[in-house]
Specification:
Length: 174
C-alpha cells in the first residue's frame, strides 16, 4: 500500500481509522500527505494517519515495517495521531517515522511532530525497533507527544531510535 500526496481539509490527511474498525499496515508507505484545516478553533490533525477511538478498551491498530514520512498537520500529530491501542514495530522490515510536522500552515503551537498519543488507560502504545527522526512540532514533542491534561495510557518503547527531532520543548519525547 502506498498513500501519497493526499490532502484533507479536516483530520487524517492520508488515512482515517475509526471505531470499530482497526487497521494492519504492513510494508507500506504513507508519505507527503497533509491535514490543513485552520478555521476558528479547529485544526487538521494527523497529516499521515488518524486513529480514533471513542473510549478505552479499543481494538489494536498495527503498523509493521512501514514508512510514515513527509506528512504535515495544522494541528497535532504530523505523522500519526492516535487515541487507540497502537503497536508499531519492525517485524516485517524497518519502520521509520520521519520528516513529519505538527503546527504547519499557520496552525499555531501544536504537539507531536512524529506521533501524538492521546490514549485512555487501559489502552496503550508499544514501539519496538522503530526509528523516529527529523520530525518537528511548533509546540512540544517533536518526535512523540504523549497525553493531554488528563493523562494518557502507557507508552512502551524498546530497541528504538528517537533522535534529531525538534520542538519548542521536549524535542524527542514530551
Amino acid at each position: 500500500v502506498a498513500e501519497q500526496g493526499a490532502s484533507s481539509a479536516g483530520s487524517g490527511g492520508g488515512i482515517w481509522v475509526s471505531d470499530p474498525a482497526r487497521m494492519v499496515l504492513t510494508n507500506s508507505q504513507v508519505i507527503n500527505n497533509s491535514a490543513t484545516q485552520v478555521n476558528g478553533g479547529g485544526r487538521g490533525n494527523a497529516g499521515g494517519i488518524f486513529i480514533f477511538s471513542a473510549g478505552s478498551g479499543s481494538r489494536q491498530t498495527v503498523i509493521h515495517g512501514s514508512t510514515i514520512s513527509g506528512n504535515s498537520a495544522s494541528g497535532e500529530g504530523g505523522g500519526i495521531w492516535s487515541s487507540s491501542n497502537l503497536l508499531i514495530d519492525a517485524s516485517n522490515g524497518l519502520t521509520t517515522i520521519s520528516g513529519n510536522s505538527a503546527g504547519a500552515n499557520g496552525g499555531g503551537s501544536q504537539v507531536g511532530g512524529g506521533i501524538y498519543l492521546n490514549t485512555a488507560s487501559p489502552d496503550s502504545t508499544t514501539l519496538t525497533k522503530v526509528t523516529i527522526t527529523g520530525n518537528t512540532a511548533t509546540g512540544n514533542g517533536g518526535g512523540i507527544a504523549s497525553g493531554n491534561d488528563s493523562g494518557a495510557g502507557p507508552l512502551t518503547v524498546s530497541f528504538s531510535r528517537i533522535a534529531g527531532n525538534t520542538a519548542a520543548a521536549g524535542s524527542n519525547i514530551d
